[in-house]
Amino acid sequence: MTTEAPAGTPVRMSAVIRRAGDYLAAHGVQSPRATAEALLMYLLGTDRAGLYSRSEGLDTRAARLFGRALCQRCHGIPVEYLTGRQQFMDLTLGVAPGVFVPRPETEGLVEAAVEAVAGRSGPVVVDVGTGTGAVALAIKHLRPDAAVWATDVSQAAVTLATSNALRHSLDVDVRLGDLLGPIPEAVRGEVDLVVSNPPYVAREAYDSLPEEVKAEPYEALVGGTRFHRRLVSESPDWLRPGGWLVVEIGDDQGPEVRSVFEAGLVEVEVLPDLAGRDRVVRGRLPGATPGATSADGS
Ligand SMILES: C[S@@+](CC[C@H](N)C(=O)[O-])C[C@H]1O[C@@H](n2cnc3c(N)ncnc32)[C@H](O)[C@@H]1O
């Protein structure tokens, strides 16, 4: 589509955004206006207020780049891969093709995890399947006294999470490997919190995912409850008595993951997201860490 203003014609940004939004909507893109705004803010290096108060239209170069980005978005490329960034809690994270894009609903996982270890000073935390580092970095940001480790089987994710940690000067040790395997032996039995947003889409549900979700790595998406089961079986070796396992789940996985948790953990809870859908399961190893309080502060 053409977004450049003819010479001498003043074009308000609101008109550019409206036309671009209509174009995206016609191609079935969700949240078309917000998408057009996000792409323009990125291309023009401005925020929303700057965008709408701008008196001139787009020059030839910006119009060409904007047109190309709109086209890529219509072909199923997630907007976050086009802008290279995503807001997660208080952090702006670098995002790149080949790595899972952090979702707002995962903020509930961080809140449930931070609440679980609220009564412990200097907690040892491991984020399994860290992707961009979103969960590990948000926890370190909220709990600067925590010793935070993060793992991922994807080298692209490890590289990106490491660069996001540097970008925010957050001291998180990111390691390549399967589940808790890359964590040093010295930490075995000392961990206060294992937290994870594992791949949990059921294999049968993959084909019906939207194109922009399928643009993310298959290994970051698909797993059903396989990873939850592995985490329940492998975490107890790493947790100290009373240590917590907190995981994100699909909204239909609550009862199944609860019963898997109840086989080895206590104080098991299924927590809903803001829309009331099951989103997080947490439970702790029996026993108590001296000086620690439980998740409800008792
Ligand atoms: C759903 S994404 C979550 C990423 C990030 N924690 C977030 O919430 O934005 C799942 C992540 O787990 C990683 N992963 C898949 N299998 C794994 C395994 N066996 N061990 C560690 N990480 C794994 C994927 O590469 C992907 O980055």
Report what the structure shows.
- The protein has 298 residues and is an alpha/beta fold.
- The protein folds into 2 domains: 13-75; 85-284, Rossmann fold (3-Layer(aba) Sandwich), CATH 3.40.50.150.
- The protein is 37% helix and 18% strand.
- The chain has helices spanning 13-26, 32-44, 48-53, 60-74, 79-83, 107-116, 134-142, 155-167, 211-214, 218-221, 226-234, 254-262, and strands spanning 85-88, 91-94, 124-128, 147-152, 172-176, 191-196, 239-248, 266-272, 278-284.
- Strands 5-4-3-6-7-9-8 form a 7-stranded mixed sheet, sandwiched between helices. The chain has a two-stranded antiparallel ribbon with strand order 1-2.
- It is elongated and about 65 Å long.
- The site of S-adenosylmethionine has 22 residues, from helix 7, strand 4 and helix 10.
Distinctive features:
298 residues, alpha/beta, Rossmann fold, 2 domains, seven-stranded mixed β-sheet, two-stranded antiparallel sheet, 12 helices, 9 strands, 37% helix, 18% strand, elongated, binds S-adenosylmethionine
